[in-house]
Amino acid sequence: MNFKEIAKRCETGPLTESKDFLMKSVAANAMKLTKEYEVSWDGKTFVNLDDEMADRCWQAGKELFLKTGIYSMNSTRVIEFSEEEVEESLRFVQPQLAMGAGKDRVVAHHRQVEDSRKPFVFCGPFNANVHEEMFVRLNEAFSREKLVDCLFFPGYLNEVDGQLIRPTSALATRMAILYGQWSREAVRRAGRPDMAIAGHAVMAPSEIACTNEEWGLRSTDPRAIVLISELQVDDVSMTRLAYYQAYGCPIYMAFTPLIGGYGGNPAGTAVVAVASFIASAMLGGEVVHIGPQHMNYKQQTNQHSLFLSSLANQAIARNSNIIATTSHTTSGRPGDPQYAREFSALALASVTSGSNVSGPRPAEPLGFNNVSPLMGRLFAEVAHAAAGLSREAATPIVEALYETYKDKMDLENAPKGEPFEDLYDLTTLEPTAEHQAVYDQVKGELVRLGVPLH
Prior knowledge:
By secondary structure, the protein is α/β, with parallel strands linked by helices. It has a single domain, classed as Monomethylamine methyltransferase MtmB (TIM Barrel), CATH 3.20.20. Helix 11 links the parallel strand 16 and strand 17. Helix 2 crosses helix 9 and helix 11 packs antiparallel against helix 13.
């Protein structure tokens, strides 16, 4: 759909208060449609095996979107769409998207349920707080991992030259320039100079500041927008989207449906998630990212989130051409085996359900650089291996992994892990023997459980 028309409806749509949109439109209709279409969760299932329910979830989510539209938070207006507009837009969704250039060009695909094609892997610091002294080295280490298709969200530079950054300051613009320069330098050092870099800035001017075809983020690099839960946008996101549309870069659209929020239980939240997938596509999202978040756990590998991810992704895979990807946010942290067991469980559930993968990251990083390229390698290996499994085969593996961490999901009590500089030799950019041992341990566990890793 034409972006100009959407932007116009931000200013001309029906006026309403945010609380009314969320309670009377989203929550009330989600509850009604979940019951009407018989979308449910038995409280036991980890990976949905009911294809008909996935199709009903799609129908319920599409009807929910037609009833709600998208809420423009700054103008307090509803962006409404007709059924014909939605059907037309979905008809023209492209099932593949190229990123990067030259020998580093890669293509992401819409995947089917139990698709045997390997999922696309977005992997990197994933918006961790990254210290300026480690920014290039850390991203170089991620970019060296050959199974990583796109360097994902190179990290937040909250402090430069010892000075904390205020988001709207001149220093923030300088920081954005460095973000672009250092990200490009990292992939060059890794021998992948034209590798796709998925960027995500906070303020619209920063998007322009980090954009440069020679030294920064390019027109071949996906740029990210995050919808505000549930089904809401603000002026900053719309302004950035206008820039992306004009610049012609791939658009990566993310949303985080909240289990225990306006969708209620995992089944109702899956219906809201489908509506959010459609909203993202209407806004121009070419890759759409679901973060299956739980309000209480504040992470994405609990049993509720595993089921939500599987059901919503199957609804999208079976009924649209949307290129879906799932984020992997854990209680555990790099340096401890729990981190890998958690992201492996979610990767197995989501990949067999038709998703690509984005991540992983700890829900609550401790300090700077709390990420690991070696764990990114294992994440990609598990995601690729999952493409060779059925949902039925993946389910008992997911259940077994969940049993190992289910009592340690509280963020305060979850393993603390270690930062990148303690997990790697900073001269060679190779993992320490201790960190390699964690990788080998969990990989061995996964093989014994039946994951076809090589």
